[in-house]
Specification:
Layout lengths: L1 H17 L4 H9 L9 H14 L5 H8 L3 H14 L1 H17 L1 E3 L5 E3 L8 H37 L6 E6 L2 E5 L5 H13 L23 H4 L1
Length: 224
């Protein structure tokens, strides 16, 4: 019964992504075992720290410091998270196991990241390498997905001789464009279409959609 319940929780998480719901509030309701309508800002803040911390292999000590709770409370939060989403713990354990044997991990496109210190005798070195190995497939895949989006957008802009817009630069998961006022509406539409389309390619396919937010302003500061 517990396995069925856990699988149901994962389905709810994927459903929330597809419905563009607040993932951090949903996570908070799951790990704190409360109705999502009763989730407050403190619950959500802690869940957000766990959601983002997990992909960096955050420890109970790191989480405790980040959300200002005791080590015991942080450990309880992490245990509750993995109880609700066991597949994530399986991924983390399997990734470390694979890396210890091979010395590298792959992202979804097959690109390798090597970790020569994964079996180091020094605990701190080994622990850092384990956390990096967990993170590399996620961040590495996200980086290449962004590059796919940039390639598609660059081609789209070049195809349209009447469009004078330019893709200026990438900042983490953001792209910045210089767009004449007359092209604003069509560029917003095309940016969303091309960036969300990278959920599918010849090399990968996501079961959850990629969402894109577009903001318009006179400069980068105004966009935030």
């Amino acid at each position: 019964m517990r396995i069925l319940a856990d699988l149901a929780d994962v389905k709810e998480l994927k459903k929330a992504f597809k419905n563009n719901e607040d993932i951090h509030s949903l996570t908070a309701s799951q790990i704190f075992n409360i109705d999502i309508k009763k989730v407050n800002q403190d619950h959500r803040r802690k869940a957000k720290a766990i959601n983002f911390g997990i992909i960096y292999g955050i420890s109970q000590y790191g989480l405790a410091k980040q959300i200002n709770v005791s080590n015991y409370e942080a450990e309880e939060f992490l245990n509750a998270y993995f109880a609700k989403f066991p597949e994530i713990k399986v991924y983390m354990d399997n990734t470390i196991k694979f890396c210890r044997k091979s010395g590298y991990v792959n992202n979804i496109f097959g690109r390798r990241s090597h970790f020569n210190g994964i079996n180091d005798k020094n605990f701190n070195v080994r622990n850092f390498q384990e956390r990096a190995a967990i993170n590399a497939p996620i961040q590495g895949s996200a980086s290449e997905i962004m590059r796919l989006a940039m390639i598609r957008l660059d081609r789209k802009i070049l195809e349209q001789k009447n469009i004078k817009s330019k893709m200026l630069l990438q900042i983490h998961d953001e792209l910045i464009f210089e767009v004449p006022k007359k092209d604003e509406k069509i560029m917003v539409k095309q940016i969303k279409e091309e960036m969300t389309s990278v959920a599918q390619s010849d090399y990968h396919s996501f079961s959850t959609p990629l969402t894109v937010d577009v903001n318009v302003g006179e400069n980068w500061g105004m966009l935030h």
